[in-house]
Design brief:
InterPro entries: Acyl-CoA_DH_CS, Acyl-CoA_Oxase/DH_mid-dom, Acyl-CoA_Oxase/DH_mid-dom_sf, AcylCo_DH-like_C, AcylCo_DH/oxidase_C, AcylCoA_DH/ox_N, AcylCoA_DH/ox_N_sf, AcylCoA_DH/oxidase_NM_dom_sf. Belongs to the acyl-CoA dehydrogenase family. Residues 273-413 form the Acyl-CoA dehydrogenase/oxidase C-terminal domain. The protein is of the alpha+beta class and 420 residues long. It has three domains: 5-139, Butyryl-Coa Dehydrogenase, subunit A, domain 1 (Orthogonal Bundle), CATH 1.10.540.10; 145-267, Butyryl-CoA Dehydrogenase, subunit A, domain 2, CATH 2.40.110; 270-414, Butyryl-CoA Dehydrogenase, subunit A, domain 3 (Up-down Bundle). The chain is built from twelve helices and nine strands. Strand 8 and strand 9 form a beta hairpin. Mean pLDDT is 94; it is low at 1-17.
Length: 420
């Protein structure tokens, strides 16, 4: 339960909608606290991200100086209770992600990796000592984290991961590789998921938990990145998420104390609980990129003169703008429903998949269509839609591809798993 549930009951508002794209007055469904979060993060984006994002994206630079500023805005571990975290509602977190991704998906991903993945792993699966040790510094941005699940040959099927942790002479020893791990080369701590045999778990005095898979389970480990044998290297020459960092991690006999293991929720349930928090944020965030693209297209078309009249006066342009905005509003209402369910404790996993699948698919189509209104100028970093569309190729892929979420929904509908 969050500390802001008093703000959950929506109150009528006479405030003029902030965005021309708010055709359905969705703002009228928001609480004063939610509007405050929206406006504060939007102001941060206007002040710090919009003036600089074209240069950061062009030069493939993550502006590290932005991270403590994000922390100061309460963005790291925003809806985690206690330990110096914000304790905001899930809906407020989602609204913040929408505003942040209106600036850039890569920079929203920083918050997702730090908060929804690394910090959530410790908050949901860690011991009290682990929470006290790591979460306050991570909330302040003094400690940067990453989340190592995906591997070079284990993406949508994490159960096939090759990373192993063995118990040797009173220590855990990790060996393996991870790929596409956000922030890994600047992180101070990594949450690494590895397979552990039940025999090793018992030898270490760790509960193995029910339902072994061939006598082993996936477990999470807190790994300080300065540990011998741990190496992270940034992946370069990317066409997407250029103002962000994704890395390869190599682990060669990384030795950890016995208390490095996350004691709760053994098995794939552990990382999936974290992924669902990230997927929830994506269902909101992707719409920020879409909204920004529509607004860029509206502004451009109102001043771009063709045949002695503004481009916005043509029927085909207006059809594009209308179609995009209707789809945006549908996605925003879906995201708001997810947020309300999350805050009420009724959100189900398949509902998160509906939001992630539908809103990423909608957002990337909107960004591509918005680019067409900008014509040839739309391929320039002077304008945001194509940058957003390129970023959304990654957003659509990570934390579950379209295919994965389709099968999650299909399993809910039919009761049959089609994954294997």
């Amino acid at each position: 339960m969050t500390t802001h549930l008093a703000d959950q009951t929506a109150k009528p508002t006479t405030t003029t909608p902030k965005h021309v794209t708010d055709l359905m007055n969705i703002e009228g469904l928001l609480t004063p606290g939610e509007i405050e979060v929206r406006d504060r993060i939007a102001a941060f984006v206007d002040r710090r991200i919009r003036p600089n994002i074209a240069e950061w994206y062009d030069n493939a630079v993550l502006p590290r100086e932005l991270l403590p500023e994000m922390a100061a805005e309460g963005l790291f571990g925003m809806h985690i209770e206690g330990y110096g975290c914000g304790g905001r509602t899930a809906t407020e977190y989602g609204i913040a992600m929408q505003e942040l991704e209106a600036g850039d998906s890569g920079l929203r991903t920083v918050v997702s990796v730090q908060g929804s993945l690394a910090m959530t792993a410790i908050a949901k699966h860690g011991s009290e000592e682990q929470k006290q040790t790591w979460l306050p510094g991570m909330a302040k941005g003094e400690i940067i984290g990453c989340f190592g699940l995906t591997e070079p040959t284990a993406g949508s099927d994490p159960a096939s991961m090759g990373t192993r942790a063995t118990w040797e002479n009173g220590e855990w020893v990790l060996n393996g590789e991870k790929r596409w791990i956000g922030l890994a080369n600047i992180a101070d701590v990594a949450i690494i998921w590895a397979k552990v045999s039940d025999e090793d778990a018992r030898a270490a005095g760790v509960l193995a938990g029910p339902g072994s898979d061939n006598g082993e389970k996936v477990r999470g480990f807190i790994v300080p990145t300065g540990t011998d044998g741990f190496h992270a290297e940034a992946i370069t020459q990317k066409l997407s998420m250029r103002a962000s960092i994704q890395c390869e991690i190599h682990m060669d006999n990384v030795r950890l104390d016995g208390d490095a293991i996350l004691p709760k929720n053994p098995g794939l349930k552990g990382p999936f609980m974290c992924l669902n928090e990230a997927r929830f944020g994506i269902a909101w965030g992707a719409l920020g990129a879409a909204r920004d693209s529509i607004e860029a297209a509206i502004e451009y078309s109102s001043t771009r003169m063709q045949f002695d009249r503004p481009l916005s006066s043509f029927q085909l342009t207006q059809k594009k703008l209308a179609d995009m905005t209707v789809e945006l509003n549908k996605g925003q209402l879906l995201a708001l429903q997810l947020g309300r369910a999350h805050d009420a404790g009724t959100l189900e996993n398949h509902q998160i998949s509906v939001g992630k699948l539908a809103n990423c698919r909608t957002a990337i189509e909107i960004c591509r269509e918005a680019r067409t209104i900008l014509g040839g100028n739309g391929i320039s970093l002077d304008y945001s839609p194509l940058r957003h569309a390129n970023n959304l190729e990654s957003v659509r892929t990570y934390e579950g591809t379209d295919e994965v979420h389709t099968l999650i929904i299909g399993q809910k509908l039919t009761g049959e798993s089609a994954f294997r």
